[in-house]
Specification:
mainly beta, five-stranded antiparallel β-sheet, four-stranded antiparallel β-sheet, 2 helices, 13 strands, elongated
Amino acid sequence: MSAEIQTPSQTVPLELAPNNDEASKSGINHGESLQKIVRYDLREEGSHVLAVSLTYSENIISKSTTSGGRVRSFKKLYQFQTQPCLSVRTKASDLPSRDAGEETRQGLGLSRYALEAQLENLADGLITLEHLIFEAKSPFRSTSLNWDVPHLDTEELETPTLAPREVTQVAFLIEEQATKADELAKELTKDGRTILGVLTIRWRSAMGDPGVLSTGWLTSRRI
């Protein structure tokens, strides 16, 4: 038995689990069944095809002997569509600079940004946001301004739950750390934009299925 999935861009062989059961070695008796599980993280939109192939031989059993039959094989195709569960729109705004000191960035202020993100549930059911992480690119550091910020009067964190088409807002404070001017220049794109980092969101559906989304490099230009 083998399986593969055809995505809009590639074909990927899948591992069957469990892969060491006795039925796969000794065969299946009359009335028995064999079950396998495949796992694959969906990363693309569009049409997907799960192809499962099976090759087997039938044994002919008589009262006195058992003889091998002919080898047979067949393939079943399962086609399905995928679409995003979460829509993310981001905006980075400049904030007043901090003093950098005489020995850093030639006396210029250290940049500060407010990163805002709008999250919309595009799925048909509820989703629960679990983790929201902004991985700042050096020389920046990020501080979450969301539900995961510790509060003295709150014992348990309440993670947001979004109904279909419901929208929530999240934000991060991004601050440049003291560094040399030439080191900061390495973090600029060709058109002069400053690379801030990557936003990653993890959630679970109403059935407990996990989901994850990571943006590309988020940038902002100093005006």
